[in-house]
Amino acid sequence: MPNEKNQTDEKEPTAEVPSIVNALNNKVKFEIYGEEMIEKRVKSSGNSGRVYLPPNWVGHKVKIIRIN
């Protein structure tokens, strides 16, 4: 019958969205644009942790991501 459409033709295409969280290790993928990156280990400081950054970074906005 020429006037009948297949039901799959009437539905809008759906894109599969990959999960950003890996079920095995619960890691999340971040994509960040920036000017400079430094990788350091956090040191103990009283009841918290501390990371020292270069003095020329003072006053700038930074983002810290724990990687392990």
Query: What is the overall number of helices?
Result: 1
Read across the widest sheet, the strand sequence of neighbours is 1-2
Spans with pLDDT under 50 lasting ≥5 residues?
A: none
How confident is the prediction overall: mean pLDDT? 80
Strand content: 5-15%
Short description:
The chain has 68 residues and is mostly loops.
Please provide a written account of the structure:
The structure is a single chain. With 68 residues, the protein is largely without helices or strands. It has a domain at 36-68. 6% of the residues lie in helices and 9% in strands. The chain has one helix at residues 7-10, and strands at 43-45, 48-50. It has a two-stranded antiparallel ribbon with strand order 1-2. Strand 1 (43-45) and strand 2 form a beta hairpin. The longest helix is centred in the N-terminal third of the chain and has 4 residues, at 7-10. The protein is flat.
